[in-house]
Sequence to fold (195 residues):
Amino acid sequence: MEGRIDMQGTHAGVEEQRRVATGARSRRLSATLLVAAFVGFLLPFATVSCGTPVTFTGIELATANVPSEGIDDTEFAGEVESNGTTVAAFALGLVVLALALLLARIPGWGLAALGGLLAVLLLPWIAASAMADFELHEGYVLSAGALAGVQGVRRVDAVRRRRSLGRRVWPAVLTGVMLAIPLVATVLLAASSGA
Fold:
């Protein structure tokens, strides 16, 4: 009987070590993805045109510094800023907040990353609603993809956690499917704009 208790205690200790190691890997991966999302804002983000094309980085859009040199209609750069700066600044702020909270191990970083993803996904819809043609560049793809990756890591962790507790995993899977809908819709919108 005493040997059996020791075996169960040892098994529980191994499970706890495995859970801690998995959590540390997930945090490192999520932190790396959040850094990648931030770097995406430093790269060319998109080209928007309504006759005259304007190309800008995510930081330029977020800080209302969309370049107007070399384009015929300087008012168009201002229109791009007025339509997208608030959402881009919000997205960038949430990426930075999520990374800071994650590194400080403060709860809420996942919610901040989710808000950042939804804000980034909103940007092409704003361009489309303004009747502008747009083409997304590597910075946008990196930011959106990295933020989607963070949500993927969180969904996998949720499934593992629910499974280890003996609970049904379908709520975590369903949440992942619901998060994929705006991502797929934005990809389809971007593909139709580039066509």
Observations:
- The longest helix spans residues 2-42.
